[in-house]
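Hey team,

Filing this mostly as a record. A colleague (T.K.) asked me to run one chain through the structure pipeline before their review meeting, and I want the input and output archived in the tracker in case anyone asks later how it was produced. No errors, nothing strange. Just documentation.

Input sequence:
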Amino acid sequence: MSDAGHKIIVRLVRYAASHPAVFMAPLHGGVALSSGAGQPPRHFPQAALERACALGLVVRDGDRIRATSEAQAFLRRALLAPEEAFQEQHRDTENRTVSVDGIRQTVRVNALESPLGAIARLKEKSGQAFLPPEALAAGERLHADFTRAQLQPRLTMAYEPRLASKARGGAGGTADLCDTALAARMRVAKAMEAIGPELCGVALDVCCFQKGLELVERERQWPARSAKLMLRAALMALARHYAPPRSASRHSHAWGAEGYRPDGSGLVTGI
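Output structure:
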């Protein structure tokens, strides 16, 4: 298919997908599509409509056409650069506000790649989110620190040159880590200590190693549907570690009988 023909199909599918009802009328050499909302009809070649139907992007129903469920993925691919088209149709991107070194920034993340993406969509019977926002943010922050700390197991060969070369007989290990990675490792260690030995394992499995809840339950021989409860408890403890609750200000009170006056003999004054 030529570039021009592909663009025509994209315009046709986009028009069909952006209106709840699209009416079709024959036209010399093509078809006229109208949304029935008082707007002028759009003209498209008959071949473009037939090609869109053959690709399963639109379906005809008498004098109407409608976009199929495949239309959205097709449009997302068409409106992106070719090298990003396939990846983007499998993404669920959204904007989130995160704190980086004390500065709040808006970043665009892929919820489908998030270690907590699937769990974040779980709902309580009341309709509320299973994971509170502060628990979700704590899990994402732990994952970010774990990544910066370079603690992920390498599954493929690394072809990039090492930034810190190790001389023969050198210390290696943490000696080759940059300050950022070392600081991140310290934050991960403090986070695990704050969660506690009973719950830190499930937080590492899900947030850092990105294991599913069912896999965690099988590996740890836990009852079904128990991992999500343990994870929520772990992340709530982690959220308190990252943002400790403010302690109430302490006030000292002295009680005395009527007419009582404090004795100032213990005070040292200088003149």
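Quick notes for T.K.: The mean pLDDT is 75. Strands lie at 22-27, 30-34, 42-45, 58-61, 64-67, 93-100, 103-110.
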